[in-house]
Write a structure and sequence with these properties.
Number of domains: 3
CATH class of the largest domain: Mainly Beta
Bound molecules: CU-O-CU linkage
Oligomer: single chain
CATH topology of the largest domain: Immunoglobulin-like
Distance between the termini: 37 Å
Shape: globular
Radius of gyration: 23 Å
CATH architecture of the largest domain: Sandwich
Length: 559
């Protein structure tokens, strides 16, 4: 009998005895036709599903995912938001922690879920493949621990996405060659369905509920480039968790979720039996082209045969208003309402002393480009450095001490101070480089992410791998290092792995570098990542094996 079978048997016979399990998953990356999308063009999926399979596990479980690449693209999978404590080799961003899995090859991701519970997502982390290669991660609390809110009757996963009629890899390659913004998507999707769409008879997703019951909605924004509003006609939602960290519950009629973010909210089926519209619509408060399409699905109450339901409730769908596309106040109210639970069981531990205080300007610029028709290309940058991807994985270069792949001189602040949110400076060209910022083990870090208005101000949902951070402050205009810290929330700030930096504004985050390895930080709008709006931290080993990055797994792909 294998150890796994023995564990399964033991957990069945004596559930209290075995608390953590080993969860095995097989991810076969394949080309698939899906009837959900009105297209005959095959898409890249995991196991033929769009969205891909949900990875279910419990806190403390060991997750083992064998990924086999059956498509013609190089590929990696990232477990977005998983802390990867001492398992940095399993994080997944291509050329950061590993070389890609080549066509026909496989790699086993092996990690343990420590200190987290809630909803996260997994997605391809190379080029634009994550458009269709993504799915939810559900981390249930330990068996002995209840949720810090009343147990819902059922749980439902709701994955929001973005769909191009054309092949996404062709879309991004064409744009990169031209140095121009890529074509915007053709529709937003809810659990893979674009909803009513011209010339498309796709049914759309239906959320079935029973009157009087409560449902935990696990909402994931897996879109590439669009921040989204989520609303259900006639129903308020109670937010209880964001990015796999519990929050103080608050009620809202609109959820705001940026690419890479997740939100758990409780839905009470407390309205008259009938059909209610669920809508998702994009948020954009900058003068930038985007996919302005609204998508919808339906919330449907099961008919109650004990009472007579007026028949019109079965045929009419109750509608809702759609937030204006530039509804900045709605996004601000939503983000300001998010506070960490900060209970005895789930305390908030904001570092109060800061070892590294960093100011990162984030935005776009324009660099010369010989092969581009205009002679220029759009680039993204942090502190005026456009990140250049290396040809082998940074983590390997770090572990084996291979010189010449990266430098550890990433600037602590922008090279020149200017009115970041005012008119663009005369020179908007950036430097290129594979420059990292070095942190000693367990040091505390504060980053003020300062959006710039160079070319155009824009909102940037910024994601940090390997850590959760606390969002201690945020504001419009330029960060004021004297006045703004007076208002920092060091008591119950929300804990996340992805945070929107408001258009022409700033956001301050803090975290403790307690995870040795190389950790990517980037804008989670794929268009900006592609342009170079990214950098990475090296976190050195501490003392002894418990504070060190172990050797790479034997099957780590080679470049
Ligand atoms: Cu969800 Cu580096 O990404």
């Amino acid at each position: 009998m294998t150890i796994l079978k023995l564990l399964l048997l033991l957990s069945f016979l004596f559930p209290a005895m075995v608390d953590c399990l080993v969860r095995h998953y097989n991810f076969r990356v394949v080309l698939t036709n899906t009837t959900k999308l009105c297209s005959t063009k095959p898409i890249v999926t995991v196991n033929g599903h769009f969205p891909g399979p949900t990875l279910y596990a419990r806190e403390d479980d060991n997750v083992i995912v064998r990924v086999t690449n059956h498509v013609a693209y190089n590929l990696t999978i990232h477990w977005h938001g998983i802390r990867q404590l001492q398992t940095g080799w399993a994080d997944g961003p291509a050329y950061v922690t590993q070389c890609p899995i080549q066509p026909g090859k496989n790699f086993v991701y092996n990690f343990t879920l420590t200190g987290q519970r809630g909803t996260l997502l997994w997605h391809a982390h190379i080029s634009w493949l994550r458009a269709t290669v993504h799915g939810a991660i559900v981390i249930l609390p330990k068996k002995s621990l209840p949720y810090p809110f009343p147990k819902p009757h059922r749980e439902k996963i709701i994955i929001l996405g973005e769909w191009w009629k054309a092949d996404v890899e062709a879309v991004v390659n064409q744009a990169t060659q031209a140095g121009m913004p890529p074509n915007v998507s053709d529709a937003h999707t809810i659990n893979g369905f674009p909803g009513p769409f011209p010339n498309c008879s796709s049914q759309g997703y239906t959320l079935h509920v029973k009157s009087g019951k409560t449902y935990l909605l696990r909402i994931v924004n897996a879109a590439l480039n669009d921040e989204l509003f989520f609303k259900i006609a006639g129903h308020n939602l109670t937010v209880v968790e964001a990015d796999a960290a519990y929050t103080k519950p608050f009620e809202t009629d609109t959820i705001f979720v940026s690419p890479g973010q997740t939100t758990n909210a409780i839905l009470k089926a407390n309205q008259p039996i009938g059909k209610y519209l669920i809508v998702i619509s994009p948020f954009m408060d900058a003068p930038i082209g985007f996919d302005n399409s609204t998508s919808s699905s339906t919330l449907r109450y099961k008919l109650d045969y004990n009472t007579t339901t007026p028949s019109n409730l079965e045929t009419t769908t109750i509608l809702t208003t759609i937030p204006p596309q530039n509804a900045t106040p709605i996004t601000k109210t939503f983000m300001d309402s998010l506070k960490s639970l900060n209970s005895i069981q789930y305390p908030t531990k904001v570092p109060l002393i800061v070892d590294h205080s960093l100011l990162f300007t984030i935005g776009v610029g324009l660099n010369p480009c010989d092969t581009c028709a205009s002679g220029f290309k759009l680039v993204g940058n942090i502190n005026n450095v456009s990140f250049v991807m290396p040809s082998i994985a940074l983590l390997e270069a770090h572990y084996h001490n291979i010189k010449g792949i990266f430098t550890d001189d990433f600037p602590v602040k922008p090279p020149v101070a200017f009115n970041y949110t005012g008119t663009s400076p005369a020179n908007i060209q950036t430097m290129n480089g594979t420059r990292l910022y070095r942190l000693s083990y367990n040091s505390s870090v504060q980053i003020v992410l300062q959006g710039t208005a160079v070319i155009a101000p824009e909102s940037h949902p910024t994601h940090l791998h390997g850590f959760n951070f606390y969002v201690i402050g945020s504001g419009l205009g330029n960060f004021d290092p004297v006045e703004d810290p007076k208002w920092f929330n060091l008591v119950d700030p929300v804990e996340r792995n992805t945070i929107g930096v408001p258009t022409a504004g700033w956001t301050a985050i803090r975290f403790r570098a307690d995870n040795p390895g190389i950790w990517f930080l980037h804008c989670h709008l794929e268009v900006h990542t592609t342009w170079g709006l990214k950098m990475a931290f090296i976190v050195d080993n501490g003392f002894g094996p418990n504070e060190s990055l172990p050797p790479p797994p034997n099957d780590l792909p080679q470049c």
